[in-house]
UniProtKB/TrEMBL annotation:
One of its GO terms (biological process) is methylation. It comes from the Bacteria. It holds the Pfam family DNA_binding_1. Keywords: DNA damage, DNA repair, Methyltransferase, Transferase. Gene3D superfamilies: Methylated DNA-protein cysteine methyltransferase domain (3.30.160.70), Winged helix-like DNA-binding domain superfamily/Winged helix DNA-binding domain (1.10.10.10). Residues 96-176 form the Methylated-DNA-[protein]-cysteine S-methyltransferase DNA binding domain. It comes from Comamonas avium. Its EC number is 2.1.1.63. This is Methylated-DNA--[protein]-cysteine S-methyltransferase.
Length: 177
């Protein structure tokens, strides 16, 4: 997983496409290095607005040479989340702590869950449980960085940036619940 901060001198160009899946609309955006965003929602215009807000200085273009193949893989992962797929990721932005959390989330196997406390420990800051929840909410890569696999310590759902129904559906697909 490639990561970089938003202080790079080269202008950020994001190519994006909108697709339909069982979870609703999905926006997949990429740089030339890999997938930078997977956003879920019900409205194409809201998803494009979300991408613009996340990357206000980026130049947004539809399509792109590798995007079609990568978006096909993302759709396959959304349908079969337990299959292991390798797609290049190019995480743009995020704080150091958020990137540690996102890395910890990627280590949670399909069909398993962790608590926010366990993720905080895995990220090296066991007291930062609320910050883990915030990092999950800021995650730009739905399903590829599986924040849906994080539950409250009491077994409750907690939150999910893209809606609790989607979180439940993903966990059911994976056999985690």
């Amino acid at each position: 997983m490639s990561t970089r901060t938003s202080t790079s001198s080269a202008p950020l160009v994001l190519h994006y496409t909108l697709r339909q899946c069982a979870l609703g609309q999905v926006l997949v955006a990429s740089t030339s290095k890999g997938i930078a965003a997977v956003l879920l929602g019900d409205s194409k215009s809201v998803l494009i607005s979300d991408l613009q807000q996340r990357y206000p200085k980026a130049q947004l273009d539809t399509g792109g040479p590798l995007l079609h193949r990568w978006s096909d893989t993302v759709l396959e992962i959304l349908v079969h989340p337990t299959l292991q797929h390798v797609v290049p990721l190019d995480v743009v932005g995020g704080t150091d702590f958020q990137r540690k959390v996102w890395k910890a989330l990627r280590s949670i196997p399909p069909g398993q869950t962790r608590t926010y406390t366990e993720v905080a420990k895995a990220a090296g800051q066991p007291q930062a449980v609320r910050a883990v929840a915030s990092a999950c909410a800021a995650n730009p890569l739905a399903v590829l960085v599986p924040c849906h696999r994080v539950l409250r310590s009491d077994g409750g759902w907690g939150g999910y940036r893209w809606g609790l129904e989607r979180k439940q559906q993903l966990l059911q697909q994976e056999g985690a619940i």
